[in-house]
Amino acid sequence: MLNRELRLAMLGMVEGNGHPYSWSAIVNGYREEEMKTCPYPAIFPYLSRQPAEQFGIPGARVTHIWTDRPEEGEQVARASRIGQVVARPEDVIGHVDAVLITTDIGSEHVERCRPFVEAGLPVFVDKPLTDNEADLWQFCRWVEEGKAILSSSSSRYSKEFLPYRLSTHNLGQLRFVSATMLKSWERYGIHSLEAVYTIVGPGFLSVRHTGTKERSIVHLKHHSGVDIVVAVIEDLYGSYGILQLCGTDDYAVVRTRDTFYSFKAQLQSFVGYVRTGERPYPFTETVELCKLIIAGIRSREQGGREVFLDEMEL
């Protein structure tokens, strides 16, 4: 694998998530007229702003596509230069070197991943890896068995947050952090959580969700003493990806904007993992992030109870 082009499969597409279009285009390039008809209106504009030399990941190509609705797979293939559209996701086994599960409904991911994990293929899973404890157990068992599974939010790679991933020393001691996000806690809360996590590090203690399913207001406590509030509101499109860091000496407010950069860095990270077998970050980080998602759901369902992460012993 180190000396030949990796063959990748993009598998799955659910309502509200156009990653098969954008991720495949980042790797393969795209056909302009076909991409203009992409049903996700944000994708073509941010792709079209990129110079041609930004497309492509050396030594990798998306060769196969499967989507839940067959007609969508055909359209993605035309737009993103994918050669093979398969009738069943399992049909890619034996023809690709790795697969990407391009859906963001965590409760479905164990079963979407199972055939490929059991076949020994490296798997990248779109965020969140899962949203329930039983499936998190299953992913942990697979990783303990040596299965190659990687999952992340693209916010882990946001270039706008990079200075604060490197250091928050100029802010003094962090005391309060807030983050805003659109859509739902189950599907998009991970974007805010992973952005914060890569800055404050592991060591979350508890989660309290005092909102509703449409308006998630979530207070998280961290061992360092910093309080974190994440707001995930269904129609908060104007405040996607805003991060506020408040310290004893100074503060910073920053917003992630360059989606192309984040997605490409995320894909490059997976390709590097497939080639070398070396994890770009510990799987324990993904486990802790999933626990935060699960604790938030549990707290909401239990009337805003403070849920401690050590209630989930994996």
Task: Explain the overall architecture.
This protein is an alpha/beta fold. It has 2 domains: 6-155 and 260-281, NAD(P)-binding Rossmann-like Domain (Rossmann fold, 3-Layer(aba) Sandwich), CATH 3.40.50.720; 157-257 and 292-311, Dihydrodipicolinate Reductase, domain 2, CATH 3.30.360. It is built from 10 helices and 13 strands. It has helices at 19-28, 32-35, 43-48, 70-79, 109-118, 133-144, 162-166, 185-200, 259-276, 283-301, and strands at residues 6-11, 60-66, 84-85, 98-101, 123-126, 149-152, 174-182, 204-209, 215-222, 227-233, 242-247, 251-255, 307-308. The strands form 2 sheets. The chain has a 7-stranded mixed β-sheet, with helices on one face. Strands 3-2-1-4-5-6 form a 6-stranded parallel β-sheet, sandwiched between helices. 44% of the residues are buried. The mean pLDDT is 97. This is Gfo/Idh/MocA family oxidoreductase. One of its GO terms (molecular function) is nucleotide binding.
Which helices and strands occur, and which strands form pairs?
Layout: E1 6-11, H1 19-28, H2 32-35, H3 43-48, E2 60-66, H4 70-79, E3 84-85, E4 98-101, H5 109-118, E5 123-126, H6 133-144, E6 149-152, H7 162-166, E7 174-182, H8 185-200, E8 204-209, E9 215-222, E10 227-233, E11 242-247, E12 251-255, H9 259-276, H10 283-301, E13 307-308
Parallel strand pairs: 1-2, 1-4, 2-3, 4-5, 5-6, 7-10
Antiparallel strand pairs: 7-11, 8-9, 8-13, 9-10, 11-12
